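Milestone M4 deliverable, item 7.
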Amino acid sequence: MTPSRAAKRLTIVIPALNEQDKIADTIGGVLPLARELLDDFEIFLIDDGSTDATGAIMDEFAAGEPRIIVHHNAERRGVGAGFEYALSRAKFDAITLIPGDHAFQNEGIARMFKAAGAADLVITYRDNQSDRSVNRSLQSHSLRFILNCLFGFWLSDYHSMIVYPVKWLRQIAVKADGYGYQICALISLLQLGLTYVQVPVSLNAELKGSSRALRLRTYFELGGTILSLLRRVPIRNVNLSQIPADAERTPAR
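Output delivered:
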């Protein structure tokens, strides 16, 4: 008798700040994929203090899909704060964050959804970063190299989309509200010895203009995050006996 497949149930978080030109494309791409590839899902749309029509567009999608929850911040609080809000209310065992600026092609999001449940973590990596600006590409490759050297996990990417296990993520103390939140969370979970698979995804063409990821403030945030990880392992009260001692990391594919 063929063993039954574990149900794919996923909490999806889509944060956005002043993305009225892109948020509809993001949600409009994610929603049909979730309906087709997942057994059940919920989507938290986080309006992070937008001053344009981003929040109103989110409300329109929520009116047509009961599994969409919209949260409006009165002022900007950062990606990490929005993710924490959804994490504290997630009703499924796995959670992921998809940027609201339509950064990722739908084919990659589909691959991530299909891989959900294959390991404790599904870590996607951007396979076409060279298509972006030279500065943005150099920044991403440099950050990856530094993190690999410092922590020794040798991942293909640290800041793409990730499917996290909710029960473990709720037990770590992540002291980063912005760009460094995901890096802090991911490295903390890897330090526990959780298993993972790596899945390729592709970026959509980047529009011309300055990138928020390249601001000076971002560098300071990342530096603080890395220092905090080097100084301590930000774990709360994790029962390590629940993690198999022989847990192996699944190689990239």
